[in-house]
Each structure stands twice: as structure tokens, then as C-alpha cells.
Amino acid sequence: SPPPCTNRLIYEKSPYLQQHAHNPVDWYPWGQEAFDKAKQENKLIFLSVGYSTCHWCHVMEEESFKNQEIGEIMNKNFVCIKVDREERPDVDKVYMTFVQATSGGGGWPMSVWLTPDLKPFAGGTYFPPEDSAHHVGFRTVLLRMAEQWRQNQEALLQSSQRILEALRSLSRVSTQEQRAAPPAQEVLATCFQQLSGSYDDEYGGFSQSPKFPTPVNLNFLFTYWALHRTAPEGARALQMSLHTLKMMARGGIHDHVGQGFHRYSTDRQWHVPHFEKMLYDQGQLAAVYSRAFQISGDEFFADVAADILLYVSRDLGSQAGGFCSAEDADSYPTAACSEKREGAFCVWAAEELRALLPDPVEGAAEGTTLAEVFMHHYGVKEDGNVNPRKDPHKELQGKNVLIVRSSPELTAARFGLELGQLGAVLQEGRLRLQAARAQRPRPHLDTKMLSSWNGLMISGFAQAGAVLAKQEYVSRAAQAADFLHRHLFEPGSGRLLRSCYCTETHVVEQSAVPIHGFLEDYVFVIQGLFDLYEASLDQSWLEWALQLQHMQDKLFWDPKGFAYFSSEDGDPSLLLRLKDGAWGPWAGQGQCWHWADYDTVSPADQDGAEPAANSVTVTNLLRAASYSGCTEWVEKAGQILAAFSERLQKIPLALPEMARATAVFHHTLKQVVICGDPQREDTKEMLRCVHSTFIPNKVLMLADGDRTGFLYRQLPFLATLEMKEGKATAYVCSNFSCSLPVTSPHALRELLCA
Q1: What Pfam families does this protein's entry cite (predicted)?
Q2: I need a surface site. Which of 42, 133, 261, 482 has the fewest CB within 10 A?
């Protein structure tokens, strides 16, 4: 039957907005039509921000936004606006700054009440529809807000103005031109101490629950180890990072059947996740697991990196070459079901596994079945292994989230198997479960493709390709970069676009009014292009990266207070022009209801699930300077660190990626130049040496002798470097002063580790 109602969101491209197109709520997209209506009718604005694969966004829609009575209250008293946070991160950041500042936390769905001139005065996250003994319900909040506006309009307007002024003060990041970047040793030591203090020695990670992967923390620890290899603190840093990565990979946050990682764990053990899978997690985790293999040589980490990239290629990759944003947490348990459940695609009942894996195991004790071995290894229980406290809606009752509860050695010993036999048994079990899962209804795929997240995924494929010596990964990264250039870049203006959308027929579409890229789009794409150049040595990616860096400077740089703004100037609907990493705790005058048990809360760290753009751009600027000889970019990197100096010195735990970049800034990048023919084996050996060595402060470049090429034109000193005795020759340069040449991988490794 046709849906009972349709609102304006039906005309939007965003999958999240389209999900709400048939609510009884008279939703508007963010735009002038809604703003004008609020002013003309003197109504408050109710702003709801989320994303299409957010579990608790779905819950609030089912409970409240599909409720006819609640919809009538909303339509009567408010102008209701829906925003896809992934499409409009600028809008999300402005109002999330308010919610976080007034509550100390935040997440999605985000619910904020605004005056007709867009100033926030009350907000929260998820609300249940009705009051309970401990929490106020959404219906009650709506009625209270409407009553306050009728009775105390002038007071609310004054309060909202004070809130806006306080937020402007809170979010201001600037520095004096003469102020220097903070000292690296102090920042690194403090950040390490703070991470060490929050570290979970038993299960890894840096909190009790919820637990997020936070690759930024692990990247910091790898860099800290590289700079303190012989010190006890360095050993501790490496142990913390590798143990965390192993526990995550063994946990339920890792999809042992379908590959890839879920967004975060609701518990300390990395066991029960929120089941959505985000592209930005896969890109960062592929890179960090590759790095773990590079450092440790343990194939376990290489296997996990390959597992992630298999998932992304198969399930998130588009035929056009880009990557889709995410897979949903919720799906129908069977094709006959009419109600979605969280995790339905991923969880298992014990009887399902016994039916799928009935075969006897050769070499094990008589009567031992494949199911017994598999269920023991992955912690399966007859009545389900999910703690009821982590299942508030009882969607996982009697189900099991697979988690490795026993080491391969212990499982093999228990059943009298050799390790190789056990590996084959478990692999057979996973393949059968994967085939069974393929018969289930799949979760919703958000086919929106974002420049920023594709940039992170390009880095993941490129870094894994270089470290694991997998050319197919490098080729996939290049395919994605070509997609960005064709679909999310305007050659005429030199600007990036934020998003495009893939239809069911695999056609790539743009919205009627394309959204231009934000700072994070430029920063993550530039980082991806630098990583792709080092993996492929194709100078066209390097040239495009430097062009984008110039455009980033033009659009976002603050010449007075330094650092980059998150969005361009000139949008009158944005009350604040923010800089990533700028907010801090604030006891303001806004009202905030925060449903901490249920919202999709993310860490308060500015380098959190995704690194802050200003953090990543410090290293980008240093790399850009090394590839171009433009010292202005080194100055900009120092000015960003100076602008965030107070935060870096007091709470670097909030900015671990920027703390890591502080070390790179002070230690100066090593320019590793390989002179040689890229097709010759001796050149390839030298490149393999570089790719197999973890060096946090290096850039790699190939001097192939073509003096008309882009790099030779950018860096004239390359013309002075030559092959020795006809062999591929390496130079390690710093500040354009180079070491003596070496012609063997062994000698090069000694230089790199010096």
C-alpha cells in the first residue's frame, strides 16, 4: 500500500533524509525555505541530525517520528528540519558544539531547539517517546518547549544570544604570530602518560565502555615507540597498541564471518557492538593494522588488514570506483519479518550453528563435530552470549555475537588437533556461516560517497599495498582517486565537492545544488593522495595533492588567528565558523537532556573516531613542503601547533594525532630519495626496504632521471643526486641536505633507523 504521507525530504538525494520522507512530521531540509517559515510564523525550529546507518536514529524514528500524535505536536508548534550529518558536517558541528558544551557528551540522533534566527537554547540526543521513572519523554519535552516559547519568548531570545556569545568565545582558537609551536618532548610525554593512565591492561583500549577503535591513539603510540625504542616507556607504548589491536580483532566488534569492523563496542571486552560499519573506520583500521605488521612482523596483523580490505572491496565498493559510506546496524531477521532488529544480519543461535556444522572433525576425539569446535572457539552459548544489560530492547535474546574466547593453541589442545587442522576447521565454519548469512536480508547500504571518507580509504588501500607488497591494493586506491577526480572535483574552479550518490542502477548522481567540500574533505583527500604517490610513485597524484593544498589554504586558512576553519566563509545560516579541535567543557545556560544509556555517543576527543582535520593537516603541510620546497607550508604547520598549544600542553589526550604531528614537526621530515629505474629489481628492493620500515617522519620520492618531470621541477636539488656504479642508489635528506649515497637495502635500513 502507498505510504500514508510524504514530505519534502522525498526530493533529497541523502539516504538518511529519504528514510524520513514518509513520516507524519512535516520535515524540511536545511535551507532558506525552512528558515523563512520559522520567521514568518514566529515558530521555534526543531533540528534533528543523524545519519542513515545510526541504530538509535532508527529507534527514535520508529518511536516518535512515525507517531501520528507526536507528529501533530511537532507540526503545530515547530518548523522541523532534518540534517544528514555526513552531508552537512558544518551544521552538525555547530550544534554538536552546543550539546557537548552543555552536557559533556553528545551523539546521534542529535535533537536541538533553535530560535527562528537559528540560535540554540536547548538540546539533547535520543529521547524515548514517553516519560519514565528516570527520564523525561520526547512528547513532554516538545510540549514544554512550546509552552516556554509562548510564555517566555523574550527570555529565551536573550538566553540564546548569551549562549551564542559564549559558544563563540569557547570555540575561538588563535595565537600571536610570534608564538612558537609547543616543545615536542613535553607534549609527547604528557600524551603518553594520559593514554597510559586510561589504558585497559586486560582488554586493551582506553576506556571501560563504550569502547571505540580510535586509531589516532594507536598511531600516536607507534610514533612514541619509534622515538623511544630503547626506553621502557617505548616498550609500554608498543605493548599497549599491539595488545589493543589483537583484542579488537578477536572481539565481536570484528565481524569474523563477513569481515570488517563494526563502529564501536558497548562493553569493555570489545564483545557486543553497535553493528553499523562505517567507511572511515575501515580506512583507518586497514592502515593501522598494516602499520602493526610493519613494526612487529606478525602475520596476524597483515591478515586483519587484508580482511578489512576484502570487506570494503566487496560490500562498500561501487562499480564506478568510489566507496559507499556505511552499512546499517539494523536489518530484517528473515524475508518474512516486518520489523528490523539490530544485529540480525550478524548474530547466531546455537541451534543454527549445530545445523550448519554437523560434520565430524577428522583427527579429533570420536563424535566431535565441527559445531563443537567452532562454538567453543567463538564463545557460543546455548542461551546466547549477550549480556542483557547490553541489549535494552531485547533484540539479541538467545543470540550469540562471535568472539574469540580461546587462543588457537588452547582450542587445538582441547580437541586434540594440530594448529593447521584447527585453522582449516575454523575456516570451513566461517565459510558455511557466510553462505548462510548470504540468504538473510542484507542491512541498508548508505550509497552516499563522501570525499573525506574516500580519502581515508585511499590511504588504507595505499598504505596496506605498500607495506604488504600487494599491487592490487595500490591499484584499488588509484581507482578510487580517479573516481574522486571524475565525480567530486571541479576542474574549472579547482574545488572539491562533498558528496555524490550511487543509484540502484550504479549511476553516480549529484544533488540539484552540489555541496562544496569542507576542510576535512581537502585534508583527508590530500593525505590519501600523498599515500598513493608513495605506494605507486605516480607523480600525477602528487601534483593534484599540491594543487588541493593551495586551494585549502585559499578557502579555509585564518590569516589572523591561524589554523584552518572547518567550513568556508559566507554562509549566513552558520552561526559559528569553527576550527576542529577548538571546543572544551563549558557550563552554559542552555538546557540539555542527555540520554547517556542509549544514544550513539562518541568520545569527546577531537581526535576521536575520525581525526580532526587540523591535526592531520599539520603532517600534510610538512609533506607538501618536502615535495615542493615551499617553506611557507612549514610555517603554517608551526602556526597551527602554536594555535593549539595550550590544549596540546594540558590535555594532548584530546588531540593525539596533533601531538604525534608535533613530534614530526620538531624532528624534521626525512626525504628518502631512491634514484633508479622503477622497473629494475634493484630499485624495487630499495623501495621494499623503505616500505617495510616504520619511520613516522619520512617522505619517499623516486628520482627516475626524467628532469622534465613534476618532482624535478619542484625540487631542483634532485638533479644533483645520481645512481652510483649503475645501481639503484638511496639518499636520506633533511632540510635539502643529503647523506652519503648507499646502494644496498641493508645500508639503507641502517640510515633510516639512525
Answers
A1: Thioredox_DsbH
A2: 133
